[in-house]
Amino acid sequence: MISIFFKLLETKLSYIRLQFISRYLKVSNLQYRIMKESSEKQIDNKAFSEECNVVLMAVSDALYAIGGKWKLMIIISMARGNKRFTEIQRQVNGISARVLSSELKELEINGFIVKKVAVGYPVSIEYELLPYSQTLQEVVEAMTKWGMQHRQKIKTERSSVNSKKRE
């Protein structure tokens, strides 16, 4: 009984709202319905924004783990057989020893690599990829493909700009 009362009240309020809007704001019934539908879509957009937040958080987590200029390059270098600190530093052009040390520590914390210290003289330190690092293979392949495509696009655009300047 009470729910029927509230439905009637809601219907009456909607009618009054429609009359008010149409009289005082000079809005037609069609325009009012469009406004009402857009406000209902805004409610649907909240679900979309929640989905967007989930995606943004996932990407943020991924960038935290493998983001930056060097981490993926270090992993790629290690996957190609470089295990010692100096080998990795030689392979990854431009990285300083301090930055490499820091990046290796972060990769170890995130479970991508393990540091193995061999006791003896001299002390031998090697880094090994853990199986979890294999989960990045698709990411690396996609980034490689996109990087090559992007480099080609930039070369094409630059050559077309240069040819236009010569004319």
Automatic annotation (TrEMBL):
The keyword Lipid metabolism does not apply. Keywords: DNA-binding, Transcription, Transcription regulation. It comes from the Bacteria. Residues 52-155 form the HTH hxlR-type domain. InterPro entries: HTH_HxlR (IPR002577), WH-like_DNA-bd_sf (IPR036388), WH_DNA-bd_sf (IPR036390). The keyword Transcription applies. It holds the Pfam family HxlR. This is Winged helix-turn-helix transcriptional regulator.
